Amino acid sequence: MHAINRRRFLQYAGLAAGSTALNSLPALAAEVFPAKPLSLVVPYPAGGASDTAARIFGESISKSVRQQVLVENYGGGTGLIGAGKVLAAPADGYTFFHGSMNEVFLAPLLNPAARYKPQDFMLAAPVSDTNIVLMVRNGIPADTLDKFIDYAKQGKGKPLTYATVGIDSIYHLMGDALGARLGLSFLHVPYKGAAPALQGLAGGEVDFAILAYQSNFDAMQQQGRLKVLTSFSQTLPASLKHIPPISRSRTVPDFEYMISGGYFVRQGTPAERVAVLRQAIGEALSKPELRARLEAEGRTVEQPIDSQQQANQFFDQYLARATQLIRSVGRKTTAA
């Protein structure tokens, strides 16, 4: 072969080989997930029940995927701000959401400002059901739910005030539903999360609060800063045996509610990346010490799941429960 032609042949051959190698790089890169830290968005300020659980899970997930999990708190708007952060991020699995019925379902179904629908999220895995409790401020002369109801009925026209994590949260709807059931008017006072709502109750800013249970409620009760009167569940985990279940009430024994939560990603996230997250969440749920920590916070912990089909079934159940709750208080969804 002529020397010049031979050089050209080798150059073309080298270019072709390089092109083939480059073309294979995206496929190889796509198999590596995660290749950088993950963002775990919590839609409430630090210190609340959601934040506590997210940090417990984040630690375990980080070890499973061998990448740092950064917990990011975005309080306000009954979770709308946090949900918006997830939906504004790329659908690549690097941003996932510690979500519940409040932010993923109730907010977009009730609040036109949400500008998203539940189906914009995809459930990677359910994690737990959380007990909801009713607490009263120090100074309310009642140590049971029924005595509190009697006290409320003796009011002289001034409605009792109650704190929740925000407008149109499950806790807000429960307060409205309880008032309607009893023929009472309660005045809702929304806060930007559980921690500020709890501070408002302990500081005497409101008369009672409806919130997801946290173990620090017990210490605050022992200090005389509040009283936990009931859990809105019929059966309680061992860690909550000291709290009366709603079934003990002679007035509203069937007023039962819990709040379900899990980890969500933006719809359109590649299935193989969602599967990586699901496996890491499942590994967390399989750890006895992690389950014990969650149960100590009043949660009924789910078993791991291994398919998107199972996750979708949970998603549909949550949506049905949210829709039924909205109807039960005489509200209409934004789609109605």
UniProtKB/TrEMBL annotation:
UniProt signal peptide: 1-29
Coiled-coil features, chain-numbered ranges: none
Similarity field: Belongs to the UPF0065 (bug) family.
Top-level taxonomic group: Bacteria
Record has Isomerase as a keyword: no
One Pfam family from the record: TctC
Oxidoreductase as UniProt keyword: no
Protein name: Tripartite tricarboxylate transporter substrate binding protein
Species assigned in the record: Cupriavidus yeoncheonensis
Keywords: Signal
